[in-house]
Amino acid sequence: MATGVELFDLVVIGAGPAGLSAAIEARSFGLSVAVLDEQRRVGGQIYRAIEESSSRRRQVLGPDYAAGAKLAQDFAACGAVHLGGAAVWNVDKGKTVSYLLDGGSRKIQGRSLVLASGAMERPFPVPGWTLPGVMGAGAAQILYKSSGAIPTEPVVLAGCGPLLLLLAQQYLDAGVKIKALIHTTGTGDYLRAAPHVLGALRGWKDLSKGSRMLKKIRSHGVQTFTGASAFAIEGAEKAESITFTHNGQRKRVEASLVLLHQGVVPNTQLSWSLRAEHRWDEQQLCWVPVTDACGQIEETGIYIAGDSRGIVGAKASACQGRLAGLAIANQLNALLPETFRGREQAIQDEISAHTQIRPFLDTLYRPQDMHRIPVNDEVTVCRCEEVKAGQIKKYVEVGCLGPNQTKAFGRCGMGPCQGRLCGLTVTEIIASERKVSPQEVGYYRIRPPIKPITLGELASFE
In this structure, what DSSP letter does residue 386 have? Predict the structure, then answer.
């Protein structure tokens, strides 16, 4: 244990559904718990600003968002220490967490850790995606959750995934004019998803939500295209229009604000920095950490819960958080073995119920290859260092085998985001060019600092 550093039974990184639930569960067994989150208030991305949101905003965002208020209240009452505004920049296997808070760098240590860093939007590297006026649908939703900010001009939503439909419904309820909704999901996707319909029907409540969203969108007369492909955003200095292929013809919709989305992927930067084993998930097209049934990395006392362990949604994420908190309490001998086994099985059953629809959704909303692996060599892949797809392909031609080598060839992945925004794209481009699996190509070797830190902040450890 590090000397002079405050010690807790459990330190949780992330105050979303998984992190809050882990803390509440661990506190119920009397463990000391500290929760760190980059946001000042709890909620994570899914329940962002839930404690300050107005009744109008909760009404627009819907009951799934409003449900976060109860979780936030339960957390506030559980007695855990909350360190809001804490940006974690390093975690080590000794379970020491280094973080920035109010301009200074500090440390905290846990007998156990739960990493609950959640999900992030999948990169959508198409021509023009870096133009002003183009942003992620998830980022736009966060703006509304945080401050009630909505577009004042007609907007185009393009891509695939449940969040795209959800945001469309929320925008319509908030009075935003949607010029067009452009789906990549088409007949072929429904046919591929058909074998998973039985599981989807078991999760009929979630399935019915999607049907209601589509009905709402149609009732507003939104111009809708399905089975679209080959997106490109046009504009000299900012977005002016989006072009795409629909039913074999090239279409163009004028728009100065385009929201792109093709699903979310686990935020795995922390687990990669710990040198944890990861595997390429061919169903969700992303990296997921290898854990035991309760989310533990090997036998380290470090657990991963929620969407950073694999995309499962808010309800299952909360269950995984509870499961990790329960397992840690069991490890620290805070409950009887038979109590652990009974509660563990009950939580696992809940997780299974909440994730039955996932294979259907993952298949139905599988992002198109051309929207993940740029065909156009001029498409920017690494936004921080302005590295284009064609440059990465050239690196492969001269012997580059994986993402780490792209750093030497052209600084790809060496910017402020540390490869977080380009990593998946770089892996898939190299795999495609080498004609091997992403698993063989691998990922960046993530090193601290996970978040940018100044020398002054580094020298200010308390």
Answer: T
